[in-house]
Amino acid sequence: MQHPVAAKWGDLGVRLLSAAVLIPAVLINVWVGGLWFSLLVALLGVLMALEWTNMAHQRDPLQFALHAAAALCGAFLPLPIGIAGAAAAIGVLWALSAAVAWFQDRQGAAWQYLGIPYVGVPAIAFVLLRSDATHGISAILWVLVIVWAADTLAYFGGKLIGGPKLAPIISPKKTWAGLGGAVAGGAVASAIFAALTGLGAVTILSLLAGLLALAAQGGDLFKSALKRHCGVKDSGRLIPGHGGVIDRVDGLVAVAMVAALIGAARSGPGATGTGLLLW
């Protein structure tokens, strides 16, 4: 019989090892930017497309092609043709995917129609945030720090404190303590990041980070609901200790979309990172 403590923390070592390998690779691409960053976004998007179609479309190759194309449009089209052009291309793919799903299964669940925007829109958000010549790197790093801190504190808060369940039907392991840890972790990490980088507006950014941490938890619950509907434990098996790519980036894609929307609304698409960070 496995010791209770070992059962509780059994996957922690594998999770840490996977993170130690993946985080430096991500940070290098964020720092280099340009085509390399777009390639990273495209790769993650295509892997998300594969996992989504495996879960929601019974591994249909046509649906995978449409979803992968949406990820590529989001990663490579915003800069040369603009957001409107990239969004239009993704919209066409969305319509085609919906039509195929409807003809294949007219009683199909709504999940079948959400995959294209789920892989395409976050790709646009990431590219917009990084393409800001002044604060692009800082914006991406800030988003990553918030999500990583929120995920970490949510994990330990749930393990150490436990308590009432947040959404037992959707995700039985999530607790209100974990949610509180996520918000606190995001806010504190933002304050430290802002202080170390000289961004200023520490209080505003910390409050915003707390809200984005909530968005990250919402993204996690969305993924959990999808997996429960599809009857799977993990979105994939690519990342040891974490499951699939969607399992790892569910909160990140939600935060990126909200962050890019805030930044673009305040300073325009060409200065999304500046609009997000300077208050």
What are the main properties of this structure?
mainly alpha, 2 domains, two-stranded antiparallel sheet, 3% strand
Summarize the entry for a quick read.
With 279 residues, the protein is mostly helical. It is built from eleven helices and two strands; from the N terminus they run H-H-H-H-H-H-H-E-E-H-H-H-H.
Give me the secondary-structure topology.
Layout: H1 4-9, H2 12-32, H3 34-56, H4 61-76, H5 78-104, H6 115-131, H7 136-160, E1 165-167, E2 171-175, H8 176-197, H9 202-230, H10 245-267, H11 272-277
Antiparallel strand pairs: 1-2
The whole-angstrom Rg is 19 Å
Please state the structural category. mainly alpha
Give the amount of beta strand, in percent.
under 5%
The helicity comes to over 70%
- How many alpha or pi helices? 11
Overall mean pLDDT: 90
First and last CA, distance: 55 Å
Can you list the strand order of the major beta sheet? 1-2
Number of domains: 2
Count of individual beta strands: 2
Helix/strand order, N-terminal first: HHHHHHHEEHHHH
Largest sheet: 2 strands, antiparallel
